[in-house]
Amino acid sequence: MLSPPGVANLLPRLIWTRQMAVNRLLVESAAKSPAVRVDGAGESSKPSRDPNLNPLVAKVRQLMSSGPNDGWEKCWEEGVTPWDLGQTTPIISHLIQTGKLPEGRILVPGCGTGYDVVAMASSTRFVVGLDVSTTAINKAKELSSSLPNARYFTFLEEDFFTWTPPELFDVIFDYTFFCAIHPSMRSAWASKVSELLKPNGELITLMYLFDDQEVGPPYNTSVADYLEVLNRVGFKAISIVDNDLAVKQRKGAEKLGRWKKILIQSSL
Ligand code: SAH
């Protein structure tokens, strides 16, 4: 059995390289909206590194060549999971401790080993961790099934894009899922997020931003990429701020975005 601190000792490897890449123009235009707060947009002096020089990232890409869903399964089967922090994402612990994580039903798509799912689950938050990989889901269940809060979360092996839940969600938390899916799926991702959230629900994106990838996964990702697809389905950013609590290897490369759908009032 693993308690959250115990989990921190597992798989403490993080290899995906990063360089923050923010489309300053779009972020600034988002910041002009009175509802949006954007901190530190585009500020980074981090050196760019080529992830193809990293054997694990190269291996991920090789395994992914068999097609997206099979590819993910192969990565998990072979233990090629350089994205796995092996611990709860620190900003999630912070949001919980400071009372800034909403309550209700929470969905974590592409949850992997599910550390964040487990951390968020409580008597006031029921969390669903979703992953297309059988091995990832089995691993998440294995690590968490005997935790004291086990009744407040569940792990489901499902494809995010085709899954239809029995009930909608108050919150969707996306971390390293948006950058993992092919960019051609980003519009579908936004539509699905919109479909799965309750009308007043909130999307929380921990955006891992970089622009030095020729191919993926992970694929080049900017704040502008999120704005483009989310604005189209009616989401507006409430805030986009630097993630000062990013793990060392991702420092300066992450922003926390909080998004809500703007409900159009009927004049009738
Ligand atoms: N968020 C996790 C895992 C990131 S890697 C973490 O930070 O550790 C991306 C994850 O998305 C993989 O576990 C992969 O199996 C999963 N995934 C990819 N496509 C998916 C899909 N269509 N539906 C659900 N999960 C998917």
How would you explain this protein's 3D organization?
Helix 3 packs across helix 4 and helix 8 packs across helix 9 (223-232). 29% of the residues lie in helices and 21% in strands. The chain folds into two domains: 7-78, no CATH class; 90-261, Rossmann fold (3-Layer(aba) Sandwich), CATH 3.40.50. The chain is α/β, with parallel strands linked by helices. The chain starts with a helix and ends in a 7-residue tail after the last strand. Residues 1-49 have low confidence and may be disordered. It has helices at residues 4-7, 24-31, 55-64, 68-78, 90-97, 115-120, 134-144, 186-196, 223-232; strands spanning 37-38, 104-109, 125-131, 153-157, 169-175, 197-208, 235-242, 254-261. An eight-stranded mixed beta sheet has the order 1-7-8-6-5-2-3-4, sandwiched between helices. S-adenosyl-L-homocysteine binds at residues 72, 83-84, 109-112, 130-133, 136, 159-161, 175-177, 180-181.
